[in-house]
Amino acid sequence: MQCESLLMSRSAWLLLRLMETNYELSIMPYELKSRVRYIDAMRGLAILLVVFSHVTNAYVKFPITNSSFAGVYYMMTMFRMPLFFFVSGFFAYKISEKWTFPTVKRVMGKKFRAQIIGLAVFTFLYGVCIKHWKFKFLWTLNPYWFTISLFEMFIVYLIVALIVKKTKSDIPLYVLLTAAVLTPFIFNYLTNGYQLLKWATFIQARNTINYFPYFMFGIFARRFESFTWKAVDNQYFKAVMIVTFFSLVIFYGCHHTYSLEWNLVMTAMRISGLMTVLIFFRTYRDWFDNGNSISNAMSLVGSRTLDIYYLHYLFIPNLSFMKGLLYTGPGNSVVAMLFIGLFISTLVVALCLFISALLRTSQFLAAWLFGASEPKVRTGKASVSSPQQLFPE
């Protein structure tokens, strides 16, 4: 009798846990269950710092002459865009499938919806709501330059990938990597002090060239994935990257120029900063994958980076009245900058997530504004996801 009672109580406890688990799974967005959470959390930090830089741009006076302020500012903003391009390149190189024309057509169709149709819609809204029907910014610096540059990078990479498949040789890929690394230095040297032609500005030629190396680094990091993770997990590599990043931030944070020396220093700062962030999230990946409240929030933000990127420009507050007040004072000005910038940035991100959730209630809007895939039919059995399902862009 006692054994039967114990067995029944044990069964009831297991049933209760199963019900709780099913409830937790049922309230989670379906696509979040098949993603690697620490990668999403890393992207969540990056998009928060993107919003942070745009919020603080309203009251930060450039060039920054306060060394402590400059160090903190560049430490928080230098790696964010290279990180996005690196991650995009990492998952653009798909190991599970070979590039074919149907595959390219499918991938580019999704990219076109998210990065061209969505771009056109939100650029129009930005021009109407923020610029009051003045679209001259299209010929200077489109705020949505990231999606333009990323789309161009995908086109170049897919062309080369098809050539690699056709020739059965990896040489074109290595040529592209070499060109991607060298071109920014040559381009910036030749165009130093000159304004680009309108068509070159419109297609974001400078940004595409400057950030293409990080996209290619991501491709080769995925191509040699085993070596990549061994390097990231190596204690000496960790020490070199972390020390290099903070040393460059401290000693070069307030020496921003357009010289070749600065381009080299900035590149080293971006690479070491990118690696430092990747090292941190990979080292503590178990904590981020455990599903606590903080990691859940960061993962949710990271799964909606494109939505936040498109929407946040519409809600950046005008803080120009604070310009000159925070960066010239004593040490506590850094604390004030961090508190004000991060607090407002968090509010903006929360608002963007709410609007994103509202827009995504329509599958049509989700697909054509953000490139969302069709929802999958859920079954009682767990399905095995391919890399492109694990890491959708």
Would you give an account of this structure?
Helix content is 72%, strand content 0%. The protein is mainly α. The protein has one domain. The chain is globular, with a radius of gyration of 23 Å. Mean pLDDT is 80; it is low at 1-34 and 377-393.
Q: What would you say about this model in short?
A:
By secondary structure, this protein is mainly α.
Percent range of helical residues: over 70%
Helical/strand content category: mainly alpha
Helices and strands, in N-to-C order?
Answer: HHHHHHHHHHHHHHHHHH
Distance between the termini: 57 Å
Number of strands: 0
Total tally of structural domains: 1
How much is the radius of gyration in Å? 23 Å
Low-confidence parts lasting 5 or more residues at pLDDT below 50?
Answer: 1-34, 377-393
Q: How many alpha or pi helices? A: 18
Q: How would you characterize the largest beta sheet? A: none
User: How much is the average pLDDT?
Assistant: 80
Proportion of strand residues: under 5%
Q: What coarse outline follows from CA principal-axis ratios?
A: globular
What is the fold's blueprint, element by element?
Layout: H1 2-27, H2 37-56, H3 67-77, H4 80-92, H5 101-129, H6 145-167, H7 171-191, H8 198-202, H9 205-223, H10 225-233, H11 235-252, H12 260-283, H13 285-289, H14 293-302, H15 305-312, H16 332-359, H17 363-370, H18 387-390
